[in-house]
Amino acid sequence: MTTEPPPGSGGGEPPEDDPFKKRPPQQPPPYGGGQGSPYDTPQGPQDPYRGGPVGGDPHGGGPYGGDPYGGYPADPLAGMPPLADSGRRTLARIIDMILVFVVVLLLSWAFGVAQYTTDADELEFGKTFGRELVAAILYVAYDTILTAKAGQTLGKKWLGMRVANLDNGSTPSVQTSLVRALVLWLPFAFCCACLWTAICGGWSYFDKPYKQGLHDKAAKTVVVSTP
């Protein structure tokens, strides 16, 4: 019996083969690629205090600068594609809403919760709640599954953008995608669809510097352009 965890059951860490995951900057090989003697002296005047060429990066941040310890640059967006335009994000969200709404209508009709009626004495609350529950499940599942799979819902894929983890640019895990979808779609489905969509998604129009919606902030994600 083995105690090793099954593949893909980690706590949200992106797989090493994720093509979108940012890699640490490569340090140039010392002394001209290691071709010469280890006792060769680098060309150019040397700084006796820093031990490197005069006029180099005073912080020693490697070829990309920024981090004095040779890690990722200070800006988490460095090495990632440009942030997606908020207008395109809104259009992609509308496309997703329409696609899922069609499925919601079909399933609601199939389960007999497609319509509710009111009169002076009675509101068919059960049917109303049933339709909202179907909508919540489908919207959350749609967003979670597709975002965790490739960082893209259909709307984002067609308009050339994807969701990425802010810290390393990788595709969000299932847990991260679920948090993002719950914040976006639960209020939409149960109480304040138009108002919450405008606030949650519209936040990216004013947010700086990462253009995050409220759901992005909850999940620590950004939306970037794709080639």
Give the averaged pLDDT, no decimals: 76
Terminal CA distance:
46 Å
| Structural class based on helices, strands and sheet pairing | mainly alpha
Beta-strand content bin: under 5%
What is the radius of gyration computed over CA atoms, rounded to a whole number of angstroms? 25 Å
Shape: globular
Our count of helices gives: 7
- The H-and-E topology, N to C, reads as HHHHEHHHE
The portion of residues assigned to helices is 40-55%
Order of strands across the widest beta sheet?
1-2
Largest sheet: 2 strands, antiparallel
- Tell me the number of strands: 2
Which regions contain 5 or more consecutive residues with pLDDT less than 50?
A: 56-70
How would you describe this structure to a colleague?
- 41% of the residues lie in helices and 4% in strands.
- The protein is mainly α and 227 residues long.
- The two termini are 46 Å apart.
